[in-house]
Write a structure and sequence with these properties.
alpha/beta; TIM Barrel; 2 domains; 10 strands; globular; FMN; Aldolase_TIM
């Protein structure tokens, strides 16, 4: 789209036309999606956890670099549940991606190592306290995960969180959650965000590798069908309320809760819960199964059909400029 740039601190930092990050989505994000986002004038990130080995991660980074000329990132879980964290960080630094998005832990080591290689670090936060902490550690931007986000959502609304972080932090604030169209993108920027990390509306894209049932669910269900479950990773996570989810419930049973609180067993149980939950998600996302556990956020309300990523981003930009 000609003369349609949306200039913010994020778009200037990464030299992109639009301050949109195609959010890293476990199992969903792939190289084809990121390449399409870059070519459409945005950027995108892939979870390192989407690759079974660091060699696969390395090859994915090289594929994106070979097929698209523009910035992209890798999402890195930096807490103890990620047993391959150090190996993943080493590969990311060696391959020199443009930025890392950190989740679920202290980003100190990641920031220190990434900056040695000229890589920017954006940190997921859900509160002002943690935002100020990562800023003090040298983060280049904050990703403000609000309660409208898909996956591991926060507890504060976008209308409260963004202005609070904007007022009290000096580095750019990127909003994550609650933005499913161009009108909402403009509102987020008005609140003080310098860009938006957007995921759920891209699940039903042509480039997404998930099965057609998952994509169709994003079309058929809406924001009122999104519920929180603690069964997948031990941390509350948003899923579509399918009949299967209604059947199994969304809370951990008494034994799971007990193990999750035991100081000696907590780390290992969380890791086990995460691995078990992710395997369940993988089966639902890529194979025919009645066990439909599909992660998504409330912005699937905006999904009406399966479309190319460029068409989705173009619509965001068109709607954004309609409100001028």
């Amino acid at each position: 789209m000609e003369n349609s740039e949306i200039k913010t601190a994020l778009s200037e930092m990464l030299d992109i036309r639009y301050p949109i990050i195609l959010a890293p989505m476990f199992l969903v994000s792939n190289t084809e999606m990121i390449i399409s986002a870059i070519k459409a004038g945005a950027t995108g990130a892939i979870p390192a956890m989407n690759y079974r080995t660091t060699e696969e991660l390395k090859l994915a980074i090289r594929e994106v670099k070979a097929k698209a000329k523009g910035p992209f990132g890798i999402n890195l879980i930096v807490n103890k549940s990620n047993f391959t964290y150090k190996e993943q960080l080493a590969v990311i630094c060696e391959e020199k991606v443009d930025y890392i998005i950190t989740s679920l832990g202290s980003p100190k080591e990641t920031i220190d190592q990434a900056h040695k290689h000229g890589i920017k670090v954006f940190c997921d936060v859900t509160t002002l306290k943690y935002a100020q902490k990562v800023e003090s550690l040298g983060a280049d931007a904050i990703i403000a995960v609000n309660k409208e986000a898909g996956g591991h959502a926060g507890n504060i609304s976008i209308k409260e969180l963004i202005p609070e972080l904007k007022k009290n932090c000096k580095i750019p604030v990127i909003s994550a959650g609650g933005v499913g169209n161009g009108y909402e993108l403009r509102e987020a920027l008005k609140l003080g965000a310098e860009g938006c990390s957007i995921g759920s509306v891209f699940i039903a894209s042509e480039e997404s590798g998930v099965n057609e049932d998952y994509k169709q669910a994003c079309i058929d269900y809406g924001k009122n069908d999104i519920v929180m479950t603690s069964k997948l990773s031990g941390t509350p996570c948003t899923v579509i309320k399918t009949p299967y989810v209604e059947k199994i419930g969304t809370d951990q049973n008494w034994l799971e809760k007990l193990l999750n609180k035991n100081k000696k067993l907590k780390k290992w149980f969380k890791a086990f819960t995460f691995i078990r939950g992710m395997k369940t998600l993988q089966k639902a996302a890529f194979s025919a199964t009645y066990k439909t556990l599909w992660c998504a956020g409330p912005t699937i309300e905006n999904v009406k059909s399966v479309r190319p990523i460029k068409a989705i981003i173009d619509q965001f930009v068109k709607e954004y400029h309609e409100q001028k």
